[in-house]
Amino acid sequence: MRQITYAEALNEALHEEMERDEKVFILGEDVGRFWQGAFKVTKGLAEVFGNERVRDTPISESAIIGVAIGAAITGMRPVAEIMFGDLTTLAMDQIVNQAAKLRYMFGGQTKVPMVVRTPFGAGVSIAAHLSQSFEAWFMHVPGLKVVVPSTPYEAKGLLKTAIRDDNPIMFLEHKLLYPIKKEVPKEEYLIPFGKADIKREGKDVTIISTLFMVHKALAASEILANDGIDVEVVDPRTLLPLDKNALINSVKKTGRVVIVSEDCKTAGVGAEIAALIAEEALDYLDAPIIRVSEPDTPIPFSPILEQFVIPDERRISNAVKKVVH
Amino acid sequence: MLDKSRLLNIYRKMLEIRYFEEKVFELFGRNLIPGTIHLYTGQEAVAVGVCLALHPQDYITSTHRGHGHAIAKGARLDRIMAEILGKKTGYCKGKGGSMHIADFDVGMLGATAVVGSALPIASGAGLSIKLRGTSQVVACFFGDGASNQGTFHEGINMAAIWNLPVLFVCENNFYAMGTRQSSVMLIENIAERAVAYGIPGITVDGNDVLAVYEAALKAAKRAREGKGPTLLECRTYRQRGHSRFDAATYRPKEEVEAWLKKDPLKRFQAKIIDMGIIKMDEVYQIEQDVIKILEDAVIFAMESPFPEPAEALKDIYA
């Protein structure tokens, strides 16, 4: 099968959906023909679909999201790009109070079919304002859906589903994933929300991880295999809705679970998943749940500091050994 | 000049809003309305003047002080009242209340309570109109307080650069809750801010319904011609407090009295009587009609059931 990058996979999804449905359009800072997206995800789209449907905006995150909402409730299907995940904070009212709540507040009179694409993640030394991951914040907002694609295959299939969904979608990417090249079918496919994927089958311990951490979990699993530990890696693919059954089934099988996420530990993604497992599958656990995450710090600049806070294969392996022994 | 039937319709709409709000105040005083209320009393000429300049398929966005906007755009009194009382038959099935009236069937895209939040949303509806190629326009109502939010700048600028068909209608009632306009901005006319976006900024007497109508009509025409947005400042005054039982003692007595003399409803009534368009017995007849439909609306709302508690779990996702 052919291989394309994560950024190319996203680009294909946008291209195909814009071709399929003229209501789909893109807006964001530098998404147009001159810059083509900070991570080149919108490359070539303005040339094909024109400046009207691939809109460069001013640096106005709140209005980018607000404009997307206004367009969505009047019949369009916008895809808004926020250049860095951290900058969604500038649009938090529009995301949390408007996009997520309008349908509910207005008694179901409207729907808000829009996608907010933005990259999270540390690892490229761009410091505390452009590196944080706070997927968990959006998991806490009823009305939103939270999508976390870990591979080019997922990036394309989930983005196409997101664009066709009638709800506001936080489509969270990861900076280090954009250049990753993997197999993606040429034929059209969609990936449903709320369906986890088992990235590696195993019987001794379950690692639940998302986004770039899936790749670190897989690398750690290979090292652990040499020690005779058979790891299962489960990728929820969407955090809201969350495929509880898949997570619990894996825990039932292995009896041990490590949750790896690239966010601060306190009240993070791992906290929610751990609570869920404790509530619904405690009797199947043979060891305490361990969370591997970032410490509760902002992301530092200097590579030696940054690498210290990001979960790596060694920390994941140590956590797995701890629950196994 | 507008014909007689349209002038009478203006009078009727303003009266509907006035009587509706007085009824809301009465019901609130009788403890029949949960939460809070923000009455539109005294500002009727703005909503009615602007909405008169719109077509049925045009959109409006509204605020926490939004009953008047909804009525002016054609929403039903009975379903608004039912919503304010938290009833199942309300526009939002009891999930929105006084601050979130919406009626998408008449182009009323809903009221939001985060001050200034609707400006970018209105620009988005304007972008949608442009991309879909229809001839609609959007009127975005907000107050003097909202004009100090970042969304005012971001939302208007985006509409300006893309020539979007939006009327940004600033209802300057001079107080953001209890904070005087003069203590939070150094300019007198908020419309002056339009210069920063390269769009027309117009200040009108917001208690003169025909002045509001004429300015809005001009702005709507410009918007429909693809020439972009207008910032329309309507200077008006709320005759009651900010919310609930606020007695608005932070406002000088002389100021309140001066504005009461400029009551938009009385002024318009006097005008159409002077012009010989309407006679007192017709005024009386309209009043009786409005009292009747309002009575019916209150009966509808009071007799409607409350929603089932589990309704709280619905409409989260489409």
Any chance you could write out the topology, listing elements then pairs?
The complex is a heterodimer of chains A (325) and B (318).
Chain A: E1 3-5, H1 6-20, E2 24-28, H2 45-53, E3 54-56, H3 61-72, E4 77-81, H4 92-99, H5 102-105, E5 114-120, H6 135-139, E6 145-147, H7 152-164, E7 168-174, E8 181-183, E9 197-200, E10 205-209, H8 211-226, E11 231-235, E12 238-240, H9 244-254, E13 257-264, H10 269-281, E14 290-294, H11 303-309, H12 313-324
Helix pairs in contact in A: 1-7, 3-4, 8-12, 9-10
Chain B: H1 4-29, H2 44-52, E1 59-62, H3 67-73, H4 77-84, E2 108-111, H5 118-132, E3 138-143, H6 150-161, E4 166-172, E5 175-176, E6 179-180, H7 181-184, E7 201-205, H8 209-224, E8 230-235, H9 253-261, H10 264-274, H11 280-303
Parallel strand pairs in B: 1-2, 1-3, 3-4, 4-8, 7-8
Antiparallel strand pairs in B: 5-6
Helix pairs in contact in B: 1-2, 1-3, 1-10, 1-11, 2-3, 2-8, 4-11, 5-6
What does this structure look like?
The complex is a heterodimer of chains A (325) and B (318). By secondary structure, chain A is α/β, with parallel strands linked by helices. Chain A has two domains: 3-183, Thiamin diphosphate (ThDP)-binding fold, Pyr/PP domains (Rossmann fold), CATH 3.40.50; 197-324, Rossmann fold (3-Layer(aba) Sandwich). Helix content of chain A is 38%, strand content 20%. The N and C termini of chain A lie far apart (40 Å). The model of chain A has no long low-confidence stretch (mean pLDDT 98). Chain B is built from eleven helices and eight strands. Chain B has helices at 4-29, 44-52, 67-73, 77-84, 118-132, 150-161, 181-184, 209-224, 253-261, 264-274, 280-303; strands at 59-62, 108-111, 138-143, 166-172, 175-176, 179-180, 201-205, 230-235. Chain B is globular, with a radius of gyration of 19 Å. Chain B has 318 residues and is of the alpha/beta class. In chain B, the strands form two sheets. Chain B has a six-stranded parallel β-sheet with strand order 2-1-3-4-8-7, sandwiched between helices. In chain B, strands 5-6 form a two-stranded antiparallel ribbon.
